[in-house]
Amino acid sequence: MNRKHILILDGMALLFRSFFATSFTGQFMRNQAGVPTNAIYGFLKHLTLANKQFCPDTILCCWDLGGKTFRHKLFPQYKANRDEPPLELIPQFQLVKHIVQALGIENISYPGYEADDCIGTLSTRLSKDHKVNILTGDQDLLQLINQNTHVTLLKKGYGNYQVFNQELLELEWGITPKQVIDLKALMGDSADNYPGVKGIGKKTAERLLKDYTSIEQIIENLADLPRGVQTKIKNDLDMLHLSRKLATIFCHVPLPIDSSLAPWKPKYDVIHRSFQELGCSHLTSLVR
Asked: Structure pTM?
């Protein structure tokens, strides 16, 4: 099999990041129909720069669908603390998918699952035979790193990245990809609104994983822990296990995957015509 380099885009992370990078100015770069396009502009800039930097054979883009997922069934308060998206961002959710489709890149999502789960499913399957690079701003995806999968975190500005493999993750974070899940389970995640073990922060969680490697080993050696830590874990044992389920990216979404993985070859005449039809001809310069 011909080994390919596949770039998977975390569409939601790129779009939100792009929106908030410019929205504070009040300039939303509206198209001919008056629809804001500032987030799409930033998204396209991230995409084209990453394509030039990493030269993938194929690009895929994953999205959240909105609404409830299986995690809400496990924990109804999941992400309940999040505000509604800004009004200027809402119409860009659908428009950006039309833009991505016009570029010849496949939009991927699945009801009941998050973009992270689609990314996890794709990377798990495809990394068996190919090299996978995940472009995101979300550190949760570091748990997907393996020998053939790197996670590229966006840094401030455009074209600035930190590419994590297993060695760099262990060097900088002191943990393995699988331990990313246990770290989140112990300390919780305020952005996703689950508490983990109350009173255990990042430093304590990191120390526990360094000493005992996993939640199973921590529980097995509970009697050896300081009394205060013992009490906290015993009091929140059920939430610890639940938080671990919530933190784990599900890698078995029933996605149909085209094994041929056709290379991405932009057809610029089609792109420019589609952008004009979408009222976004002002964005065509980004993909020439």
From this structure: 0.94
Torsion of CA 89, 95, 100, 106, to 10 degrees: 100
Distance, CA of 246 to CA of 233 (rounded, Å): 17
Write the CA distances from 112 to 21, 116, 117, 247, integer angstroms: 29, 12, 10, 16
Separation between Cα atoms, residue 142 and residue 238, nearest integer Å: 25
Owner of token pair 């198209």 = 31
Q: Which amino acid is at 70?
A: F
Buried residues in 96-123 as b, exposed as e (16+ CB within 10 A)? bbbbbebbebbbbbbeebbbbbbbbbbb
pLDDT tens digit string along 246-279?
999 999 999 987 755 778 888 888 788 888 887 8
* Interatomic CA distance for residues 62 and 116, integer angstroms: 8
